[in-house]
Amino acid sequence: DTAVSQTPKYLVTQMGNDKSIKCEQNLGHDTMYWYKQDSKKFLKIMFSYNNKELIINETVPNRFSPKSPDKAHLNLHINSLELGDSAVYFCASSQPLAGASFGPGTRLLVL
Amino acid sequence: AQKVTQAQTEISVVEKEDVTLDCVYETRDTTYYLFWYKQPPSGELVFLIRRNSFDEQNEISGRYSWNFQKSTSSFNFTITASQVVDSAVYFCALMRNSGGYQKVTFGTGTKLQVIP
């Protein structure tokens, strides 16, 4: 069973479109995250949710809107996609005494 | 604020050589966790080890070993007798607990290339 799953794995789209990435974890973790990894491999936290509540919102354009319908899901919706949004987006979850478990990543390419 | 520094951007070694990846962190918390992750060319992030701030015991797992030195705020990772399959980007990370939630901060990663 996959602990943290993300869909889709690859996403190619045109500038200006709106797209969503879904994330689900079956580990029972309370905290979930979205990270962005750019072409230089830097991993930057975007959002963190704890029990469906937004805890951390780093400096991210408001075109990015996370939604957590329940503790096991944290989806990411992106409006009006721009070229600079091209990156790999990782979903993760964690618990206080455990490490963060990561999803396989979603490779987004904006044309 | 917390910060993780991996000063080595890229390292190349010849197969069977030993290599140490450096990680230095900054935090004001007394309780925190340190991690290493491996990101092979396939792209997934693979958890390698977790160490909490109260446990300075070094750890060895096969060819991997970790040296946690709280006095120097370092958590270095050594691969002994490196193999081509060790080629990857390695990330050091720091996690703090705050009000029941966690925040994980990553270093910028060290790209390791093992040459056959």
End-to-end distance of chain A, in Å? 34 Å
Q: Approximately how much beta-strand content do the residues of chain B carry?
A: over 45%
Distance between the termini of chain B: 41 Å
Mean pLDDT of chain B: 92
Shape estimate of chain B:
globular
Task: Tally the helices of chain B.
Answer: 0
Compute the gyration radius of chain A: what is it? 13 Å
The description of the largest β-sheet of chain A is:
7 strands, mixed
Proportion of beta-strand residues of chain A: over 45%
Uncertain spans of chain B: none
Compressed to H and E, one letter per element, the order of chain B equals EEEEEEEEEEEE
Write the H/E string of chain A, N to C: EEEEEEEEEEE
The profile of the biggest β sheet of chain B is:
6 strands, mixed
**Helix/strand class of chain A:** mainly beta
**Overall residue-averaged pLDDT value of chain A:** 90
Low-confidence stretches of chain A: none
Category from helices, strands and their pairing of chain B:
mainly beta
Query: Radius of gyration of chain B from the CA trace?
Result: 14 Å
Question: What is the helical fraction of chain B, as a range of percent?
Answer: under 10%
Number of strands of chain A: 11
Overall geometry of chain A comes to globular
Summarize this structure as a short list of keywords or feature phrases.
heterodimer; A: 111 residues; seven-stranded mixed sheet; 0% helix; globular; B: 116 residues; mainly beta; four-stranded antiparallel sheet; 57% strand
